[in-house]
Specification:
308 residues; mainly alpha; globular; 2 domains; 63% helix; binds zinc ion
């Protein structure tokens, strides 16, 4: 199956049973993923939603994974079939639905757009990635440093991340998401009136959002076991994995926080606690209106922001 003619003939291979389907798709997973991403890219180009940048490449990859997952589930029931052709037909069907890339109805609310927009930014910006710890759980810089187990040099990077985010990263991001000042204030009002309900709603959406966005980073995608995390925490290796995955996975973050509590009793077990505006330098929150005030024209880039 390694040489070229065989590789080409794979596209028309017929599998007869669910076991053969499984074996075949397992052997050809990278090609299948690539094909699914190509379908996504083609759809985005044809509908005028494409741009040649990292954000759109990651978007294509994410939706490639989504398609592939659907294909792996439904393909077993479609045997006998030609897997590559089945994937093509599934992609065609998927992209012919109205608004196929809207992955969760709840994400249309201001809360959903805030969470989705932050995660979307975090796959292309380290500042936004670090800011997630604060916006989702209220962690300050020093807590992030402890949870991630960073040395002095990497700790400084976290302070810089928070600083840039506070200066202009947050403002730019909410504008890209298309959230208006009244919407941001209303989210804050909801939280002050019923914090528990906002946390429950945010927690529910977060699982969906984080799973979806982790697909942009296949090498950081899988969750690790408690033992694997303990190993990483003890020895301080796998820097990138720690930093990226924990910002994007509530379950693993919880495991690591529990582990860190042995050394740092001030590390809480993370509970979803939404902060709409960035953490200020002295660690205090900003009151509504201080940082924004300019709600005009914020919605203009909304169509783009959903894609990246
Ligand atoms: Zn995880």
């Amino acid at each position: 199956m390694q040489d070229q003619p065989h590789a080409l003939s794979r596209f028309s291979v017929l599998v007869a049973t669910a076991e053969e389907f499984e074996q075949f798709t397992n052997d050809t997973l990278p090609e299948l993923l690539d094909r699914a991403a190509v379908h996504t890219r083609k759809f985005l180009k044809e509908t005028g939603q494409w741009a040649d940048d990292v954000a759109h490449e990651k978007l294509a990859l994410r939706w490639g994974y989504e398609l592939l997952e659907r294909f792996l589930v439904c393909g077993r029931l479609e045997v006998p079939c030609r897997p590559f052709f089945l994937l093509d037909s599934l992609a065609a069907k998927f992209f012919s639905q109205p608004d196929p890339m809207r992955y969760h109805r709840g994400l249309l609310t201001p809360l959903g757009r805030f969470l989705d927009g932050l995660a979307s930014k975090a796959v292309i910006s380290r500042d936004a990635l670090m800011a997630l710890f604060y916006h989702l759980y209220g962690f300050g810089q020093s807590q992030v440093v402890k949870v991630l187990g960073l040395d002095a040099m990497d700790s400084q990077r976290i302070y810089k991340n928070f600083g840039r985010w506070r200066r202009d990263g947050w403002q730019r991001t909410v504008e890209e998401i298309g959230l208006t000042e009244p919407e941001l204030s209303s989210l804050e009002d909801q939280k002050s009136q019923d914090a528990k309900r906002v946390s429950t709603d945010a927690g529910r959406l977060l699982g969906e959002v984080q799973t979806h966005y982790r697909k942009s980073e296949p090498e950081h995608f899988p969750c690790l076991s408690g033992e694997q995390w303990a190993d990483i925490c003890r020895d301080g290796h796998s820097y990138d994995y720690r930093v990226w995955h924990l910002a994007m996975c509530r379950e693993c973050l919880e495991i690591v926080c529990r582990f860190r509590q042995g050394e740092f009793p001030d590390i809480p077990v993370p509970a979803v606690d939404l902060y709409v505006r960035p953490l200020q330098k002295n660690g205090l929150m900003v009151e509504a209106g201080v940082n924004g005030g300019n709600g005009h024209g914020m919605a203009t880039r909304r169509a783009n922001s959903r894609l990246s």
